Amino acid sequence: MITFTRHDDFISLNYTVEYGESDWVSRELKKSGYIRLKKTFLLEEQNFITQSQDDEEEDEIFDPEIYKFRFANLSDGYFEVIPGIISRTVRILFEANIDLDISYFVADVTTSIFRLLERLVEEPIYIGGDVPTAIPISEFEKMIEGFPTAHEKKLYAEARMSAILKNYLDKTKDSEMQYQRYMNKKISRQGANLQKTFKETELVKYQTLLEKVEGMLSDEKDYSEKQWQVEILEIIQLLYPKYIAVLSNVPISDKTISDRILDFLLIDTNGHVDIIEIKKPFDNSIITSGKHRNNYIPLRELSGTIMQLEKYIYFLNRWSADGEKYLLEKYRDLLPDDIEIRITNPNGIIIMGRENNLNTEQRLDFEVVKRKYKNVMDIITYDSLIYRLKKIIEQIQKK
């Protein structure tokens, strides 16, 4: 059995022989000058604490059945493990108030934790304390809990064999499932908290977008149609980062009449195209103020934009491979070198109108219209855009 005792200026490793002859340690120290314990600790004769040395410690009673070795020395608030005992090349230091335990050094009975760590790092390992590079003791304990046990290794080996055997033998035990259930209960590898890392940046980003949209709506008359579209496109690309390029004034071959011109064509990270239509936000442009057969219906501005977008999608799909080749050649300089343009059932986005003055029934009927076309296009009003931004900001602030 191995335990550790903290003294005034050092820590001792105490070894009690549990099996076999108790004097084997003395014999081995005289013969070889060192002993190995649990394939982890290399304890040399020079670190052995004799009876006379032990008697110098106050309140200590020498027990001949316990072999004590000087293990770590106190310096600047840390107990530094004597070089060579658990690591040949890396300094190991524990904050002075940490109570050492055998589990900090040995995993799976004979697996040396610090022999593994010294393969990964080339600088001192501080555990606990205020040193900038120190590993918090809670994180260190969490790490060693993740070391594979003998049982886990056995389950893994069975799972590997089961994966092959069940392809040929019908009555094979599903060891893969058993292994996965076991691993799901264990501590999992945990990477950096990305949400925490980018929280402030994301918050500033969406707050800035919200201020931008609200500012544009308050000064709508000061913008030309073209400039309005350009600035809204910037916002959309930040809201939908999958779009890496926007192509302007894109000709589409009709094959029957003169080419149609798309205002904007969106290109995503895989080269697939989508269409976006952006209209300035006239107050009354999406839904009627009066009912037709007991329903509020889309106004001409909205229904016309929907029809226009549906035609663009239709002609793009007809253009297909010829269109892909033409667009790639025409806009190659605006795209990443290794990307190919793909026309595969493009979707549409319409940004137009206000709904802040709609009553509840008008909003419901407008939602019916949006859902009718949801499979091919997303209809977004400027109030809806503001609502989305506010909800994103609220969610970021909660995290």
Assembly level: single chain
Largest sheet entry: 7 strands, mixed
Could you give the distance between the termini? 46 Å
Radius of gyration: 36 Å
Order of helices and strands: EEHEEEHEEEEEHEHHHHHEEEHEHEH
Structure description:
This is Shedu immune nuclease family protein. It comes from Mucilaginibacter angelicae. Residues 223-386 form the Shedu protein SduA C-terminal domain. InterPro entries: SduA_C. Pfam families: SduA_C (PF14082). The protein is α+β, with helices and mostly antiparallel strands and 399 residues long. It has three domains: 2-145, no CATH class; 150-185, no CATH class; 196-398, no CATH class. The chain is 39% helix and 20% strand. It has helices at residues 24-32, 51-55, 113-117, 137-145, 150-165, 175-185, 194-218, 225-239, 300-331, 360-372, 382-398, and strands at 2-6, 10-16, 34-37, 41-44, 48-49, 66-75, 78-81, 92-95, 106-107, 111-112, 125-127, 243-252, 260-268, 273-278, 348-351, 377-380. Strands 1, 2, 5, 6, 7, 8 and 11 form a seven-stranded mixed sheet that branches. Strands 12-13-14-15-16 form a five-stranded mixed sheet. Strands 3-4 form a two-stranded antiparallel sheet. Strand 12 (243-252) and strand 13 form a beta hairpin. The chain is elongated and about 100 Å long. It starts with a strand and ends with a helix.
